[in-house]
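Summary of Year 1 activities. Much of the first year was spent building the evaluation harness for sequence design. The harness presents a backbone, in tokenized form, and records the residue chosen at every position. We chose the following record to illustrate the format because it has been used consistently in internal testing since the harness was completed.
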């Protein structure tokens, strides 16, 4: 470029080019450990792993540097029982020592035996081929329920139908279940954790607020063999005084979407699986500042109703929702549940294992807007989302009480 410019312009640009080159060389010479980073720490592929039952979890991390040709040549993993101990490099659970290796993916834990409800704090030190060394920032994971007798909770639900349910129809219908329990917490809270499984699907609320942002949880499994539970940190939601935990139970694939009356699916010829009515297992563990622990868990003291706004729900036919039947405040303390029923004790089935879900749940990742809205001669509207998708329709509707709004989903 300088060749085709005037001498004056070339003279003006040349010093800037020289200065830029000198600055780049100086930066390269001056770079040191401050350019090295260890990040993207994960346990079992999760940046936040809560309530795992893996006894030998695997650690991963990445290194980042402003230099070229930077390689890890050794690492050291430190695992401690508290953040304070880890800050002092007191690895009272596991110290791998310096390991001469470039491994940074799925390094297996080899420390002391892990225990139920345990919180573990860890970091990794990395050495590079440029004779640099640096620690990562601390991270953590928690253990779940490792023994079957760690569960104080009982399976509960509503072992009956209402007059509008159609469990024996080929196109089954079953209303959602709403379950609630109030409890008192009178001490200063240090931490609180919820362990929950709801068959087929659940949403959990605490003091009127939704817990987490998962949808369609938990992950589908062979329910006659294994059922997954999820773990949530509910510390910010539990307050001193009276609290309320509420759970909505949907059918998912636990309650049969279709009833072929004992015969195989006529399209696939696959034998039909029917596991029964929805049910809930939930256990709250509350740790107080004084070291004591309180438990809130599903048992006969809970209340339940199927007389709520979700009249029917399944993955094939969608959801029927009657806004006239909304249960305002049902998951908050002080709600009048005298018209609700006492729960029924249920069973997950013989020899069914309750295990921590190893994968992340489904979450809403993106909000899409229609690329076009077309009015039809029938007074309906066609919304074109521009792509195949899985999700929900969010819409504001105005109208007189009793009006019905119907949405049908198609793909092409």
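For this record, the design step produced the sequence shown next.
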């Amino acid at each position: 470029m300088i060749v085709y410019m005037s001498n004056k312009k070339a003279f003006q640009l040349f010093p800037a080019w020289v200065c830029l080159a000198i600055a780049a060389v100086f930066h390269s010479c001056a770079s040191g450990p401050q350019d090295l980073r260890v990040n993207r720490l994960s346990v079992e592929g999760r940046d936040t792993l809560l309530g795992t039952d893996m006894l030998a979890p695997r650690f991963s991390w990445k290194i980042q540097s402003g230099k070229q040709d930077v390689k890890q040549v050794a690492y050291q993993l430190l695992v401690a029982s508290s953040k304070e101990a880890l800050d002092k490099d007191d690895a009272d659970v596991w110290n791998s020592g310096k390991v001469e290796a470039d491994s940074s993916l799925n390094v297996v834990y080899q420390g002391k035996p892990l225990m139920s409800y345990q919180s573990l704090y860890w970091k990794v030190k990395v050495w590079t081929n440029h004779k640099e060394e640096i620690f990562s920032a601390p991270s953590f994971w928690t253990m779940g329920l490792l023994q079957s007798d760690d569960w104080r909770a009982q399976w509960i639900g509503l072992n009956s139908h209402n007059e509008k349910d159609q469990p024996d129809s080929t196109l089954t219908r079953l209303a959602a279940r709403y379950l609630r329990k109030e409890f008192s917490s009178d001490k200063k809270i240090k931490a609180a954790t919820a362990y929950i499984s709801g068959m087929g699907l659940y949403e959990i609320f605490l003091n009127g607020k939704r817990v987490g942002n998962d949808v369609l949880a938990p992950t589908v499994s062979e329910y006659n063999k294994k059922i997954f539970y999820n773990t949530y940190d509910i510390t910010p939601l539990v307050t001193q005084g009276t609290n309320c935990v509420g759970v909505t139970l949907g059918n998912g694939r636990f309650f049969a979407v279709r009833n072929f009356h004992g015969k195989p699916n006529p399209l696939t010829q696959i034998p039909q699986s029917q596991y029964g009515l929805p049910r809930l297992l939930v256990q709250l563990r509350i740790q107080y500042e004084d070291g004591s622990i309180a438990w809130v868990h599903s048992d006969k003291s809970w209340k339940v109703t199927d007389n709520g706004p979700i009249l029917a729900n399944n993955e094939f036919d969608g959801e029927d929702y009657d806004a006239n039947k909304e249960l305002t405040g049902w998951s908050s303390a002080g709600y009048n549940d005298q018209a609700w029923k006492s729960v029924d004790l249920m069973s997950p089935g013989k020899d069914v294992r309750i295990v921590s879900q190893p994968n992340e749940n489904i979450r809403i990742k993106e909000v899409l807007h229609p690329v076009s809205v077309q009015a039809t001669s029938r007074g309906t509207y066609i919304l074109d989302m521009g792509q195949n998708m899985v999700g929900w329709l969010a819409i504001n509707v105005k109208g007189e009480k009793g009006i019905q709004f119907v949405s049908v989903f198609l793909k092409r």
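DSSP finds two helices and 28 strands in the chain. Quantitative recovery figures across the full test set are reported in Table 2.
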